[in-house]
Amino acid sequence: MTDYSLPAPAIEPAELVWRDGLPESARFGDVYFSRENGLEETRYVFLSHNGLPDRFRNVPPRGAFVIAETGFGTGLNFLAAWQAWRECRPDNGSVLHFVSAERYPLTRDDLKRALDLWPELAPLARELLTSYPPLVRGTHRLVLDGGRVRLTLYLGDVMDAWESLSFAADAWFLDGFAPALNPDMWLDNAIALIRRHSKPGTTLATFTAVGKIRRALEREGFEMRKTPGYGRKRDMIAGVMQVNAPATSPPDSGTVAVIGAGIAGTLLARNLASRGIAVTLIDAAEDAGAAASGNLQGAMYVKLGVEFNVQTELALSALIFSQRAYAPYQGTLWHPTGLLQLAWNPQEQDRQARFIDRNRYPEELLYPVDAATASELTGTPVSAGGLWFPNNGWLSPAGVCRELASHALIRCRFGTRIERLVPCNGKWHLSSRNGADIVVDNVVIAAGHRTPELIPLKGEYRFKSIRGQVTEVPEALMRAPKAVICGQKYLNPSHNGVAVTGATFDLHNTDPAVTQEANRENLDQLSAMLPDLFPDEAHQGEFEGRVGFRCTTHDYQPVAGMMQDCSGQSLEGVYLLTGLGSKGLTYAPLLAEYVADRITGQPACLPASLASSVRPDRMCRRRSD
Length: 625
Description:
By secondary structure, the protein is of the alpha/beta class. It folds into three domains: 16-241, 3-Layer(aba) Sandwich (Rossmann fold); 256-291 and 398-462 and 555-619, FAD/NAD(P)-binding domain (3-Layer(bba) Sandwich), CATH 3.50.50; 339-390 and 464-552, D-Amino Acid Oxidase, subunit A, domain 2 (D-Amino Acid Oxidase, Chain A, domain 2, 2-Layer Sandwich), CATH 3.30.9.10. It has 17 helices and 31 strands. The chain has an eight-stranded mixed β-sheet with strand order 6-7-5-4-8-9-11-10, sandwiched between helices. An eight-stranded mixed β-sheet has the order 17-18-16-26-27-28-25-29, with helices on both faces. Strand 2 and strand 3 (30-31) form a beta hairpin. Helix 1 (38-47) packs across helix 3 (76-88) and helix 6 runs parallel beside helix 7. The radius of gyration is 26 Å and the shape is globular.
């Protein structure tokens, strides 16, 4: 694995030298694109010699075309491909997937300066810059152009990228600095990995014509040809995968039903609909967002671990993705007020100190603040500092669910309580008391705490249902903050005269009724965390509240993907998206994207390590359970 000089999860940015207004790499001593005309060079070398955009025109509705690239650089190749895709493809659910790796990514400012050189790409460049991730290592999925384009950008070594990502390319852009200046990118091992992610008919093109590179590609099954290069460059090479194997097509997603119209289920339904797939969205309630996602407010946050392990990486990936996913609702249903993770007791102060000492995060994600700064940022007195997340905030989750469910390709079946799933003739029959069975090719159980009763493997999977009661506090009774504060409880800013706090954690309580005892627990703990919040004894009265039941797992990690029985046999056509616990608002967007990737057979947004950490068969009961 690559040795990174910065503490996790940060990654070193590119060091640029600007000569005559054009960027060069100080590290590699090479240009990012031709001094003659970088955009025309990209169109000639990569688009033309991969048969694009003609091949784009042959992508069927709901289909996908996958381009993989060995060096993202300034993003010029990506924007050129995106522009060609928009010009050639109707909005019919087809998706351009672009998979790229970059060991030394440009900062957002350098990226903007580089892309400002191409005014005709300005609208696409602006959207890319808006979604460009913080410079932390690992896999980033960017959903662009209303879902018509998906960029999987791996920040790290190209070998690590191809080892961990799941995709099959239709075309390769073998870009990057010249082999003599950046030999690691052109090693035989790297070319073998390119072969692993290719299939019969996969094409490739590269600006180089080095004989060693051409021969290595030929050994891996590519039929190569030398052709005139761009501008002053005499030669380049291009090729196509020619192996004795039948061509494969991605699986037909067929018909899809999603059981559960909470935040996870509605995000998934909308995600699939944006890819042109008709979805039946089913819930026992009379509207979307009626169960655990029905609170007036929900804080969007995660607690990042002191050690940067797989669980922390998943949480960070989900956090970054969710901030972009909710952006369309900003100002109405999504409120990025900032969030303070308060160091509310000595143990949390110690944990945060170790967290800061062992990790490095970009300040656009989080940074430590003292008590005075925390009080200023939140607009309410706090007695300790903490970690400030400037782009976090709170949602109106039920409103978001209803907005997500409103789409021409989503058929809502509310007031329908599914009681069992039965396989028959290669399809799944969803039975209820509300009429005829719903028959589909694929079904996703996103039913929260009801998940165990719906799984068609009775008794094999284990989940926990946790009762959580939130309390609605009138704004007039407290010094309400202007940002979210999290500690042993969370508190949102007030909205329409009320601020939501909570939630209780009642593992063995199944009572759906609101109790004043639970409200007192919430308010007493909130008052202890924020002693100056309530004047006098204002929190001692009776308050409104709401009960929801969260579904969680034995390891408190979410579940997403195709089901397997406890012998390891896949349960074809049945997927789970559940176990999100109290962090569902943050985890749901990324995991919905991942499940949609798996259903459609498109490149996965999660690398292998994160995909393994959420696999459903973790929930199988062992004999000792």
